[in-house]
Amino acid sequence: MNDGKVAWRGNFPAVVTPFTRDGAIDEKRFVEAVELLASEGAHGVVVSGSNGESWALKGPERLSLFALARRALPRDITVIGGTGSIPTGDVVELTKAARETGVDGVMIMPPYYCGASRREVVAHFRTISDEARLPILVYNSPKSTGVDVVADFAAELAEIEWVCGIKQSTLDFTVFEQTVAACGERIRVFTGHSAKRGMASVLAGAVGFVSSLDPHVMGREGISLFALTQSGQFDAARRVQMRTLALDRGLGGIASGPAVMKAAMNMLNRPGGYPRRPLLEASDGEKEAIRHVLDSLGLFSQVRAAA
How confident is the model at residue 197, as a pLDDT? Predict the structure, then answer.
């Protein structure tokens, strides 16, 4: 339960992890990425989430990225590190080490692949909370984990001492609304999929986004959606939402998510880098399709105008 432990609010992009073509972490580009997002209005960043290819990162690599982000950003920008894994002991160990890097909290998904029951997932989070004692943002991504933290499940997790929030990335918006109703008074409820439903989520009670494609490709415009909606600038928010939705629909399915996002970022002179294998850089044909979508939204013109 949050009980005032954190006041997380706003747009927290799940920052990409830029790799070089040979798979090494490009630390310079990573720092550029977090600094750029903060300069464009991000209220926080999530490091080593799905967007950051957490599955491709070893524990020491994650910790290094957490420390880089925390050193690069002012204290009023929240830094959350992704420490999720399958064995509970491994998550406890990594979360304790993350605390030493200075992060403000950790994002943890339920243990995936192993077929954990609800009772086992609750025990997993309770053990991490009791032993690591660092604010936890639960990450519900049922498509990725095979576990769906629906509203009453989230309410049960919200009773755990250091569970302070949830990134509710269910594809069912009704479940998102039910989650806000069930535990929005006790923990901070963020939405995923902000490119699709950010505006609606704020109106339904979300305190923020853990965003993906929209801030990384559209920069300040994409990041602005939370603040525009929260401040009641609905016409402007609606215009941005329609553009993020067009971006999401246009780029969806061209290639793997990280490959598409990073190719788009590179084209727009943003620090995307390359994915880590087994994911491959977008092909020439895929890049042409990506370029067409970006051009249709006038994003190249925006870059030229800002130069």
Answer: 98
CB crowding 50-87: b at 16 or more within 10 Å, else e: bbbbbebbeeeebbbbbbbbbebbeeebbbbbbbbbee
Q: What is the dihedral of CA 21, 24, 28, 32, to 10 degrees?
A: 70
Query: Please, which pLDDT band fits residue 91 given cuts at 50, 70 and 90?
Result: very high
Beta bridge mates, 208: 10, 190
Residue 135 phi/psi, 5-degree rounding, is -55, 135
For 113-157, how does the pLDDT look when each residue is reduced to its tens digit (9 = 90+)? 999 999 999 999 999 999 999 999 999 999 889 999 999 999 999
Tens of pLDDT, residue by residue over 55-73, are 999 999 999 999 999 999 9
Q: Which fold has domain 10-247?
A: TIM Barrel (3.20.20)
Q: Return the structure tokens found at 95.
A: 């979360």
List the structure tokens of 282.
């977008």
As beta bridge partners, residue 191 has 168, 209
How many angstroms separate the CA atoms of 259 and 279, rounded? 7
Q: For the purposes of burial, counting CB atoms within 10 Å of the CB of 305, is it exposed (0-12), middle (13-18) or buried (19 or more)?
A: exposed
* H or E element at residue 181: helix 173-183
| Ramachandran quadrant class, 298 (left: phi over 0; alpha: psi -120 to 50; beta: rest) | left
Question: CA separation (Å) from 283 to 25, 242, 270, 287, 288?
Answer: 21, 28, 19, 6, 9
Quick check: 273 pLDDT over 70?
A: yes
This prediction's pTM: 0.96
Q: For residue 305, what pLDDT band results from cuts at 50, 70 and 90?
A: confident
CB-based contact 77:109 (threshold 8 Å) = no
Asked if residues 277 and 24 have their Cβ atoms less than 8 Å apart, the reply is: no
Positions marked active-site: 50, 139, 167
